[in-house]
Amino acid sequence: MPPVRHRSLAADTAVTAAGDGRWRGTITPEWFGPPGPNGGFIAALVLRAIRAEVGDRSRYPRSLTLHYLRPPVAGAAELAVTVERSGRSASTCSARLIQDGRDLTLALCVLTTDYEPALSWAAEPPPAPPPDRVEPLAAVSGVPPIFHQLETRNVFGPPPFSGGEEPVSGGWLRARSGEEMSPELIALYTDAWWPAPFSFMTDFAPAPTLELTIHFRARPDPADPMALVRFRAEASIDGLFDEQGEVWDRHGRLLAQSRQLALLRRG
After folding, report:
1. DSSP-derived secondary structure for the chain
2. 185 Cβ partners below 8 Å, 6+ apart?
3. d(CA 95, CA 64)
4. Cα angle for residues 183, 110, 112 (degrees, 5° grid)
């Protein structure tokens, strides 16, 4: 297998201003998963445009919800961002990912400054061995392109399509480029592992995301891109399944929670 170039998510989600809330970006094929562009990559690209439009780094993304209408194709894309409201401490934005004049993804995002908490608490991270005690999975020929860009160390659940006892997956995850941790990288991580039902199944089925919501929690340490992710599904009904996700840093801080609805259909 020829050597694979490790892509920078920051570079591949970079956007340039086109005026009047419009931004230009690129759908990069190296971030594709079956059957097309990874939903986490799209989330990262949309978030990059939203943060650029807001232009205030003190306002951290807190909630991002995306509805995936159609899969993009590799190449140029346009992002239209509207700041629906911006107050003293919070901004609410809507965004559209557009190719060839068609809306492909719709998004809503809330960004806020930090608030003085009345009370703080968080759940404990799931028990897991340190990443250096878990062998990374080999990015072998034939796996989706996105897995060549990620270092994955499986901790939760059996391998895909091994007929495990429950729909759970996850482990240690890091971008192979070694870039800084960012909200965009966290957004990618919420949809970068194989779907939890795959650990429960014995045969492949497409699992494209219809809707993804990400709640960004603690601000990350930019110098540490390693994260512990865990995903689980509660039900698959009428060809659709849910998936709940968690993203933790190696110090046990909760960086994000996610929930998505995706297809799980034959053929």
Report:
1. -PPPPPPPHHHHT--EEEETTEEEEEE-GGGEETTEE-HHHHHHHHHHHHHHHH--TTSEEEEEEEEE-S---SEEEEEEEEEEEE-SSEEEEEEEEEETTEEEEEEEEEEE-----S----PPPPP---GGGSPPPP--TTS-GGGGSEEEEEEES-STTS--SSSEEEEEEEETT-PPP-HHHHHHHTT-SPPGGGGT-SS-----EEEEEEEE-SPP-TT---EEEEEE---EETTEEEEEEEEEETTS-EEEEEEEEEE----
2. 9, 10, 44, 175, 179, 225
3. 10
4. 80
- Distance between CA 231 and CA 246 in Å, rounded? 7
With beta carbons less than 8 A apart as the criterion, state whether 196 and 171 touch: no
State the pLDDT at residue 267. Answer: 65
Return d(Cα 7, Cα 234) in angstroms, integer: 34
pLDDT in tens, 26-64: 999 999 997 789 999 999 999 999 999 999 999 999 999
Which residue, 110, 108, 105, 75, is CA-closest to 90?
A: 110
> What whole-number distance in Å separates Cα of residue 51 and Cα of residue 41?
15
Regions of the chain short of the pLDDT cut 50 = 1
Distance from C-alpha of 57 to C-alpha of 52, rounded to nearest angstrom: 9
What's the whole-model pTM score? 0.96
**Sign of the CA dihedral 228, 170, 208, 8?**
positive
